[in-house]
Write a structure and sequence with these properties.
By secondary structure, this protein is of the alpha/beta class. It is 41% helix and 15% strand. The protein folds into 2 domains: 33 residues; 235 residues, 2-enoyl-CoA Hydratase, Chain A, domain 1 (Alpha-Beta Complex). The chain contains 10 helices and 10 strands. Helix 3 packs parallel to helix 4, helix 4 packs parallel to helix 5 and helix 4 packs parallel to helix 8. The chain is globular, with a radius of gyration of 22 Å. It starts with a helix and ends with a strand.
Length: 272
């Protein structure tokens, strides 16, 4: 009997030691305790790499992805972040403004989406933008550089529509492509087609109409868009909801994007 008690005591001691070590490791691992991820400025492949661990591994009971002010940036990086936000049930809050890639993928992916009183959600195109594939076909990569230019190449109207950016491949860029299952040797056209597929899947899971990012460039809105007088377009709450964006909460009980400083440079779009 004493022998069994000694064995039991040893097992209990080992279990306690394991629990203590695990708790210490938990305290040391910031990703496991991460409850807030914040983005300010352009979203890049480096943004994805920096926040990936926090978004995917956090055990926090309440998790919020905060956009203080982002004009967008790399659509693929924003899409990847949106996938992680949705998969791991993060809330999203827009403090000042969330534009372009940010509005296309990060805001819609939130479990609960918070808008402050004067927040701005600005759209101006996406992977289905009419001229995007045309721009991709214009780019002729140098075979000796594995499809990557010596310096960044941007096609399209910057800050007026979704542009196509071809940049030298960094380690972060390769990690992003691996996450999105895009081969390194892909051409710009192949990349866009792959991103369309990934975007369609995310929107389908979220129940969002894929016209979200481009509806303001179509039909009666096309001449306004192609005048390039505006930085983009905005939807009101009823249109956002009809497009499938649910669980929007207003932090101050009201939302007045028309009071945001950028409002004179946008046009309003109503989705049927």
């Amino acid at each position: 009997m004493k022998k069994y008690l000694k064995i039991l005591a040893v097992l209990v001691s080992v279990a306690i030691l394991w629990l203590c070590c695990s708790f210490i490791l938990f305290l040391q691992d910031e990703d496991l305790r991460c409850d807030t991820a914040t983005v300010t400025g352009n979203i890049t492949p480096e943004t994805f790499v920096k926040l990936r661990g926090c978004l995917a591994r956090s055990f926090a009971p309440k998790k919020t992805f905060v956009i203080t002010a982002s004009g967008g940036g790399d659509n693929a990086a924003a899409l990847a972040l949106g996938i992680l936000i949705h998969k791991h049930n993060w809330d999203v809050e827009v403090v000042d403004y969330c534009a372009s890639a940010c509005a296309n993928y990060i805001f819609p992916a939130g479990k609960t989406k918070y808008l402050n009183r004067h927040s701005m959600l600005l759209f101006h195109g996406g992977f289905y933008q009419e001229n995007l594939l045309e721009m991709a076909k214009m780019f002729k990569p140098d075979p000796s550089m594995s499809g990557a230019p010596a310096a960044s190449v941007i096609l399209g109207q910057i800050n007026k529509e979704n542009t196509l950016s071809i940049t030298p491949k960094s380690i972060s860029y390769k990690e992003l492509n691996e996450f999105l299952s895009i081969p390194d040797v892909s051409t710009p056209v192949e990349i866009i087609l792959a991103l369309r597929k990934a975007s369609d899947q995310l929107y389908q899971e979220l129940g969002i109409n894929p016209l979200l990012s481009t509806y303001g460039q179509l039909g009666a809105y096309e001449p306004i868009y192609k005048s390039y007088k505006y930085v983009g377009f905005v939807y009101r709450l009823d249109s956002l909801r009809r497009l499938g964006i649910r669980n929007i909460e207003l932090k101050d009980g009201e939302w007045h994007p028309e009071r945001h400083p950028v409002y004179p440079d946008v046009y309003e779009v109503t989705f049927p």
